[in-house]
Amino acid sequence: MFGVGPACFLGTGLLALLLCRVERSLEMQTYYLTGGWFWIPFLLLLAEAVFILVWAILSLPIKQRGKKLSTKGVYSFVRHPIYTTIVFHFNILCSLWLGSYILLISIPAQYLLWSKAVVFEEQYLVGIFGQEYLDYMSRVSRFLPWR
After folding, report:
1. pLDDT recorded at residue 116
2. Is 89 within a domain?
3. How many CA atoms, within 13 angstroms, populate the side-chain half-sphere of residue 57?
4. Which region among 113-122, 123-132, 135-144 has the lowest average model confidence (pLDDT)?
5. What CA–CA distance (Å, rounded) separates 119 from 124?
6. DSSP secondary structure letter of residue 27
7. How far is 120 from 3, CA to CA, in rounded Å?
8. Residue 69 belongs to what H/E stretch?
9. Which residues pair with 78 in a beta bridge?
10. Residue 117 lies in a domain
11. CA gap 26, 110 in Å, rounded
12. Using CA of residue 125, residue 131, residue 132, residue 135, what is the dihedral sign?
């Protein structure tokens, strides 16, 4: 709502670059996938990320953005689908592209980091929507479609 999303994307991107830089400077082992072993998972994951992002945008009520809590579509599965694609899909896509093990290993740490950061946005949303958002939080998971 007030900038956590862009910060999540920028922060995750900068962290990915930093981790890859460290990985290369320490000459840590990387991997290299060729042909279908690279393109099939890469394109499937990219398609899934785009699908989730488009679904998130289409799930928002057009005329009442910011005035009505959206709990339909992808928002009935996760409260923050855009962060989900940034934290999980972006890191795996970058790992595949750069052959970085460290990016895969960093996903749980980034999950914890962004789970803490998104708390501020959730407090803001509770201030706007009140009990309705608190009930929504109790029903729907933050990033993953299961509890």
Report:
1. 86
2. yes
3. 5
4. 113-122
5. 9
6. T
7. 10
8. none
9. 141
10. yes
11. 21
12. positive
CATH number at residue 18: 1.20.120.1630
In a domain, 146, yes or no: no
Judge whether 144 lies within some domain: no
Phi and psi angles of residue 118, each rounded to the nearest 5 degrees, phi first = -75, -10
**pLDDT tens digits, 85-96:** 988 898 899 888
The set of residues, in sequence order, having a beta carbon less than 8 Å from that of 136 and lying 6+ positions away, is 69, 71, 79, 129
The domain tally of the chain equals 1
**pTM, 2 dp:** 0.79
For residue 51, give both structure tokens.
């699908």
141 bridge partner residues:
78
Whole-angstrom Cα distance, residue 73 to residue 53?
11
The 10s digit of each residue's pLDDT in 80-120 is: 998 899 888 988 998 888 888 888 888 898 888 888 888 98
Cα end-to-end span (Å), the chain: 24
Query: What domain range includes position 90?
Result: 4-139
Please give the single-letter amino acid code of residue 101: Y
CB 120 within 8 A of CB 4: yes
